[in-house]
Specification:
By secondary structure, the protein is an alpha/beta fold. It has 13 helices and 5 strands. About 20% of the residues are buried.
Length: about 350
């Protein structure tokens, strides 16, 4: 812009915008060339422009396009043409050699300070695809930074990183303790014992050790984990190395495998108890309905009589009889069918209500 109109020109002020508008007019001739990806000016002109100073301009070309090299001479010719037109109006344009996108990304990747500061402080003239705006936004949000900034950030984070590693290492025993506590609480649930803390869980595991079937080694290591975490909490635990963590990991894995077997065994035991209770309750309902509480008749006979008097007469749904028959096969003949998960004492409460109503 002519000097008589100019003074100091701030990057965000009106005069800088006026300069950018003028430069857009001079660079409009580039918009018809497909390989031109973006244009921006940088340097002192973005802050203060004096007519005797050069205005540094960078043109970015898309070298991913086919035969882009054939278009480069046209770009250079238009650079010279724009410089000449601008000179007639008192502007000294200075175009850098065209910069391919691949080069731009490369020097950004290696955090070359020049390109970082140039794009960060530069003012965009032409950017049809938003390429330059994207880079500026990444720079603004701190996701791209120069080598010196990168080093500074690395040094400032070094101690934090070391402390973070130490915290994570000391956090391993707590993670292990949480795993064992949750597993132990699951085992205790099968013997109707419910706990809230690791210490309480360990104590109840020791108290119910025989009923659950847990090994002494399990209780011993559980106690060791609790004490180790108490020392960490008090800050009295000395440093331990990776070998010790490996040993603890193997012991925890062993406890998990032991727990899997115990859980399967306890689940089977609980299921058997549920089915036996359900069967005894159902047979008692049948005998009561048949008025044969003291009868010496076999349970098979009882079920047959119940079927004739109550099921075949539609007083009781057939589903109840089928469930009792499955229970009989399981209890007396050790034949278990799939889908017996729904059968329990509560299930036969509905049959009890129907039987009481049928006798009125």
């Amino acid at each position: 812009m002519p000097e008589k109109e100019g003074g100091a020109k701030n990057a965000g002020g009106k005069k800088a915008k006026e300069l950018a508008k003028e430069l857009k007019d001079f660079c409009r001739i580039f918009t018809k060339i497909g390989i031109v990806k973006g244009i921006f000016f940088y340097g002192s002109a973005t802050k203060k422009y004096v007519s005797v100073h050069d205005i540094d301009i960078c043109v970015i070309i898309d070298d991913t396009k086919k035969d882009y090299e054939k278009e480069i001479p046209k770009v250079k010719l238009l650079m010279a043409f724009a410089e000449k037109n601008a000179g007639k109006k008192g502007f000294k344009l200075h175009f850098q050699p065209p910069k391919p996108i691949s080069l731009i990304w490369h020097i950004i990747r290696i955090a070359e300070p020049w390109i970082i500061s140039t794009i960060r402080t530069g003012i965009i003239i032409y950017d049809p695809s938003g390429f330059l705006r994207t880079i500026k936004n990444l720079l603004k949000s701190g996701k791209i930074y120069a080598v010196d900034e990168k080093a500074e950030r690395l040094f400032s984070r070094a101690m934090d990183s070391l402390m973070s590693v130490r915290r994570k290492l000391l956090g391993i025993p707590l993670e292990m303790l949480d795993i064992i506590t949750i597993i132990s609480q699951m085992l205790l649930n099968y013997v109707h014992v419910y706990t809230t803390s690791a210490n309480e869980t360990r104590d109840m595991m020791r108290k119910n050790q025989e009923e659950i079937g847990i090994s002494p080694a399990y209780i011993e290591f559980y106690d060791e984990l609790i004490k180790a975490n108490e020392k960490i909490y008090r800050g009295t635990l000395g440093e331990f190395n990776g070998d010790e963590i490996d040993i603890w990991e193997k012991r925890v894995r062993g406890m998990i495998e032991e727990s899997k077997l115990l859980l399967a065994r306890l689940k089977q035991k609980q299921e058997k108890a549920r089915l036996l209770e359900s069967y005894a309750y159902a047979i008692s309902l049948c005998k009561s309905a048949l008025h044969e509480k003291e009868s010496k008749e076999s349970e098979e006979h009882v079920l047959k009589q119940f079927k004739q008097r109550f099921v075949e007469t539609n007083k009781i749904p057939h589903e109840y009889y089928d469930a009792m028959k499955e229970l009989y096969e399981y209890v007396r003949k050790n034949k278990k069918k799939k889908g017996m998960e729904y059968i329990n004492k509560l299930y036969f409460k509905g049959m009890e209500v129907m039987l009481s109503q049928s006798g009125k």
